[in-house]
Amino acid sequence: MTGRQRRAPLRAPDVVGNLVALLLVTCAASATLWPSYQSRAFVIMVAGGFLLGATVAVLGARFRWPAWLVILMSIGGFGIVGVPLAVPARAVNGVLPTTEGVRELFTATVLGWKQLVTIALPVGDYQALLVPALILVLGSTVVGLSVALRSAHGELAVLAPVGLFLAGILLGPSRAARPVELGLAFLVLLLGWLLWFRWRRRAAATRLVAAQSTRTIESVSDRRLAGARRLVSAAVIVALAIGGGTAASIAVPPTGVRDVVRSHVQQPFNPNDYASPLSAFRSYLQSPTVDETLFEVTGLPAGALLRLATLDSYNGVVYSVGSDDAEAESASGSVESGSFTRLPYRLDQSAVDGDDVVLQVEVFGYTGVWVPGTGQLEQVVFGGDTAVARSDSFYYNDVGGSAAVLGGLTRGDRYESRSVVPTFDGNLADALPGSALLPPVTVPDGMLSALERARQAGQGPGERLQAMLADLIAEGYISHGVGADEPVSRSGHGADRLTELFTDVPMLGDAEQYAVAAAILARGLGFPARVVLGFAPDATADPAGAVTVTGADVTAWLEVQTSADGWVTVDPNPAVREVPAKEPDDPTVVSRPQSVLPPPVVDTEDPSDAPPPDTSVEDPPAPIDPLLELLFAVLRITGLSLLALFVLLSPVIAMVVIKSRRRYLRRSRGTPAARIAGGWREFADTVTDFNGLSAAGMTRAELAESVGGVPTVGGTPPVVFAGLVDRAVFAPGPSSSADADRVWASVGALRRSLAVEHTRRDRLRALLSLRSFGRYAGGRKSTRGAGIRGAGAES
């Protein structure tokens, strides 16, 4: 019977069962999209998208709509409910769509995908970025439910939520949250839906046989017993799948980092397109910028610093944000330091231990792409006439805490930022280096002696770091070199300028040179370090008071990462004090009379006491054979592939083993009469697995007639075989082992005959079928005399 005949008209249990199963699977699949949104609007969108998709699919199945009409109705429903679900900000009272909302809705169907992978997560309900998720949920629901209700192969419906599950991973963040738990939950729900399909198909086959028979096929108790057996079988398969998945996760633990789409999409803001902000350090100290009001800040705590940009890559000429060498970034792990993404909604900074700070900033004379701020940003809201433009062009890098606006800030821009400023209460002398990966740096030759002194100054890394900073502060003097009364101090922070800083007496420079020098020396001591350019305004103790920031407040400082406290702010700049006169390059040598010293006492050492010279030569490590290395790689990949294949095929293998074990016990255990009865049960189970017919309540002759004239392969036709079993069971004398062997030979021949009659796919389906576990061919166990007379009801 064809799938169309079997499924027309729709049965309410089929519709309800598929709806519930698809709802559960869709919820699990949509969980992969949650890290991208994390808002109440996303939950509403998933619910509305599923409801719309289910309505279209059920109506399409009920009235037999063609595929083009189902697609057309889905698009129409998408246009009607898309704005309140996916662009709620453009809906009147959150319900009625507006013209602007409809325009953004259909524009986002094309452009929203790239916007979603070039923006900081989570996005909430920002603009129309919920549209891609709505399309995925709606499409998955319509396709999945339509296939489940209308196709003869309804099991293929599971592919729709699988696609949703994978799409959520590809569009999501690169760091996975609970990947094993989510994957196992999704797998269990998929298996449950597939088992439900099998159970409904068996029920349909039972109803068909009942409609063609005048006898009662299954009693209430029989159905309950069959249901219990199917439930146990399903539980075993699910347990095997969970066990296999857990074993695989233990053998090959997930790294927590995924290769997703956003990892390969070029970000719109590239800091390497702009000059290093530290190169313009001296420009802030020159007239008229030095006395000009750059911006006013309200809410800045006393003594707090304003970050302009974080720089972590040094090429010997300039310190910059990230590296302009893609290969160097990838190798060092600094790709994230130069990666800026949109910040439409908020960032979760709950893991940062610090103080909450809310700043209100109004821009006056400052111009530039870098946005002043403090701490780790949670949310920023722009105001004024340029609010929309600035919000759409705002980018943020959470690794370095730097923010930027394409096109730059100008006079009149206003914004409010909410941040968490980390606190450090520990002792730097006790600190141990952190594990951040930064681009490699080379210490200039003129700084090697200072680095060697720092390495010998303390026992631990923290003590050496503290000693280096103390020497820098003690020996250094501040001079910007821009005033008429200031000593000459060259700008820049290249390797030649740093060599000059450490070779001149006195050491003369400003924050540009000292911060870079301290960062390079800290790197030489093993600490991840970076330079921060910003401002140190004279903030009042009252955070509510407005603070005026001028060019004279510009400064630079050092951040080092420790293993216990993360990135710690350190000020490496000497205090402003009077600069002593510079020593001449070729000072006059004053001759002094030499004192006559007695000759030194020669300490002769007995050669016999001297240790023998070490003549041992350490053998260099033997090179690894390339062929052997290739062999190990092939074996490792093969082993992982076989493990993954075993996990996927574990339910199939389990089913084959269980059926083989059942057949072996029926054939080898018990008396000859029990073996004969077991042979008939094996034949009845084979018929059930192949044809979906329930043998419950049928005599052996009826079951044999239902099979029909199966072309035998060197064996006995089903009707003759049924009579053979009846004679062996009901004969007055006991059955012999030879009788049992003949019965089982006939069982094997009939199994081969049924296999020849069906296609390869049917044979595979019968091998994996659970129908025979729902109701054995024999029903309840009985003794030889009374219990085997109902051929189909015996087990």
UniProtKB/TrEMBL annotation:
Q: Which residues cross the membrane?
A: 12-34, 40-60, 67-87, 126-149, 156-174, 180-197, 231-252, 630-658
Chloroplast among the record's keywords?
no
Q: Which UniProt keywords apply?
A: Membrane, Transmembrane, Transmembrane helix
Matching InterPro entries, A to Z?
Bact_TGase-like, Papain-like_cys_pep_sf, Transglutaminase-like
List, alphabetically, the Gene3D superfamilies matched. Answer: 3.10.620.30
Record field: compositional bias (Pro residues): 609-621
Q: Entry's Pfam families?
A: Transglut_core
Segments for region (Disordered): 569-621
- UniProt domain Transglutaminase-like: residue ranges: 502-574
Per its UniProt record, what PANTHER family does this chain match? PROTEIN-GLUTAMINE GAMMA-GLUTAMYLTRANSFERASE
Q: What is this protein called?
A: Transglutaminase-like domain-containing protein
- What is the species listed in this Swiss-Prot or TrEMBL entry? Cryobacterium melibiosiphilum
